[in-house]
Structures are given as structure tokens and as C-alpha cells.
Amino acid sequence: MSEGDVLREGVAAVLAAAGLAVMGAALLGGLRAPDIYVRAHAARLALGAGAPLLLAALAVAAWDGAATLRLAAIGLALAVAGPAAIAMITGAAHGLGQAAATGPNPDRPS
């Protein structure tokens, strides 16, 4: 294994770890969310940042022209279309009268 391969695999590992960390934080945020709007914010984080980071890690690890281009296109599409879809979903929830959770936060002492 050459020095370039080791560097490429290291970059891929760092990108994958970052993507998994972002998606894990989004998962925890979605589980603790009180309403659709906060859950949608967590999903936007996973789609807009986590998935593209994981796809970037796959693209760097593959290091094949066609595969890298396809993975980059999918990552770009997720980074742009994912948050836009979440915005449409929350807009529809608001249009249907879905109220946001209000009141004191039980996790925060007063």
C-alpha cells in the first residue's frame, strides 16, 4: 500500500466519522424532539450534512472516476433536495394546522 493510498483511506475515514457523528446527533435530536418541526430540523441536518459527508467518504475511498462522479452527484442532490423537501413537509404541516410544542422545557430547570 502506497503512501497516497494510506492518506486517501485516512481522509475517507475522517469524512465517514464526521458523517456518522452528524447523523448520530440528528438521530438523538429527532428522538428527543417534541414536535414535527424540531424533528424536521434534525432530519434536515442528517440529509443536508450527514449523508453528503458519508457519500464523500465513499467517493474518496473508491477513487474511481465514474464512481466518484456518481457519488458526488448523489451527495449534491441530497444536500440540496433533502432540506428543500423537509421545508415542504414542514410547510404542509403548518398548512394543516399542526401546532408547535410550547410550554416549559422539562429538561431545563427553571
Structural class: mainly alpha
The global form is elongated
Q: What is the average per-residue confidence, as pLDDT, rounded to a whole number?
A: 88
Q: What is the H/E string?
A: HHH
What separation lies between the terminal Cα atoms?
A: 58 Å
* Low-confidence parts: none
Instruction: Summarize the main sheet.
Output: none
Number of strands: 0
Specify the oligomeric state.
Answer: single chain
Treating each run of at least 4 consecutive H or I residues as one helix, how many helices?
3
Q: What gyration radius follows from the Cα positions, in whole Å?
A: 18 Å
> Roughly how much helix do the residues carry, as a percent range?
over 70%
Short synopsis of the structure:
The chain has three helices and no strands.
